[in-house]
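Risk register update: the risk that structure generation would not scale has been downgraded. Supporting records follow, first protein first.
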Amino acid sequence: MTISKSAAATAPPAAATHGRTPRRSVLFFAFAFAVIADPVSSVAYAIEAALRALHGDLALLLPTMSLVVGLVVVVTANYWQLVRRFPKGGGAAAAAAKAFGARWTFPPIGALVVDFVLTIGISIAAAASAVIALFPGLAAWRIPLALTLLVVVAGLTWFGHGGRLLFAVMTVAFVIISVAVLILGFASPHASGHANAPGSPGHSAVLAVVLAFPVAMALATGVEAPSTAIAQLGQLDDTHRRRFGRGTLALLVVIVGGLTLSLTALAVRLHIGIPGADSTQIADIAHAAAGPGWLYGAFQLTSSLLLLAAASSSFQAGPGLLKALSGTSERPGVLPPVLGRTNRHHTPYWSVLVYLVAAALIIVAAAGQEQELVLFYAVAVFVSFLVGLLAMTRFALREGKPALAWVNGVAAVAVTFTLGVNLLRGWPVLSLVATLLIAVGLFFRWNRAGRPTGIEDIEAQAEAG
């Protein structure tokens, strides 16, 4: 830890400094594991999404997920740069505004609004699927079960941000149970499946992987969270916010990448293919590894709770963004003031209702099936990724860093390709249309309001609020 000259005179004695270290460690634990709940929860459905896109070809599953994890690393590297440049938060929106002008703030904002709705919808649907895999008798009640979970999670947001530490505990619990399942699965599995792994020869295998991996890029959603969530850490200086943000990104890559590749390898080893209608692939992996006992039950329970935590996190971040856009008494807003009204726990309840209704509609439209929603998932957030990468490329060129500009440019091409392949599937174009409509609508409202300043920092304001 470095201490500035201005702070040196008032620095506490060594013993006091050491005494504060555990509290900062607890803060990092609560912050990091709560923030990464979303990407960690994506493991529950991303692997299955890839296998479905591969038409059940297990031989190509590990190469596909390796490519997915590789691209997650590339995107994370961009946000590593964003954290360094914007230690007070702001993410892609702040980068876009600084690189291209304030009007370019709106595509990332529109993307986030859509992404939050999809995160809530897909997380709730996946949590319902996890419960049904454990209790198959509930299969006929899939949609009512999902809607009930949705209302419960939305209701819990009434009490504000008090659940942050609980989210962190859920994330850690899922990781610990997953590691236990993996160890047992590789060392002494209970059973194995019957899916074959024939593979595809030559160029057809390469083409299959290239066309399948964009669907599983749902794994990358949530990667942007640390770059904006550091705005919550007002008690820390810029140096420590950078450390928290970058430490969280590193932890995200290690945990998400490690769990994804390990579970994928175990699925191939145990021949776990596309699941039946009332199960999920990750549930089938755990069942084959651990059998029907307590460990399998714990795995399903912790995975469902983690998914609900991811939904709850978006139920806080999404309405928080709408609240920030609605303005304050000192700053004119872009959205109607009613969306900023809060209860005594600082929860913008009308904004929560907006997300509740939107998420309910997509859950019903998808019949409560998370795999139907995965196709839409890696579209909106990739618009934000792309804008952020283009902004960082421009910064690198301005500052005479051609190597960094080349890396960011290559990453932008990869993100563009991923976005393009997903859009070619047809229906996912609705995510892009929604993103653009929201961005354009917000821009015109901002223009009509006299272009109030501070719009480029709206993500940071939402988190800090």
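Supporting record for the second protein:
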Amino acid sequence: MMTVKKQGTEGSSSSLVYSTETGRVCPDCGQPVAACVCKQPRKAVPAGDGIVRISLDTKGRKGKGVTVIKGVALDAAALAQLGKQLKTTCGSGGTTKDGLIEIQGDHRDTVIAALQKRGMTVKRAGG
């Protein structure tokens, strides 16, 4: 048996809020909250000028250098895969977040060579 709770007062339009079978329900699309597609941000490829910029960043890291790669025109999954391959090439750790790839340490020369081998236009940024 399914229990259904509806939101709203009498006389007003009501919508399904909770179902014992699916749990909470999105009021916009009517799908379970876990499968809701209307609230998820659209992950589009960032528009850029086609130039990948490599820089060394030390701010907020207690003086430790991190190689930052910006401007790669790939979606989130492909960017994560590229980040993993670059970390393996450099033999170092790092992360991929917010359209950036960060690799621990100063690996600018290695990263530039690896990306140019892939056919990308690469520039050194920030000195």
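Strands lie at 4-7, 15-19, 23-24, 51-57, 66-70, 94-97, 100-104, 121-124. On this basis the risk owner (M.S.) recommends closing the item.
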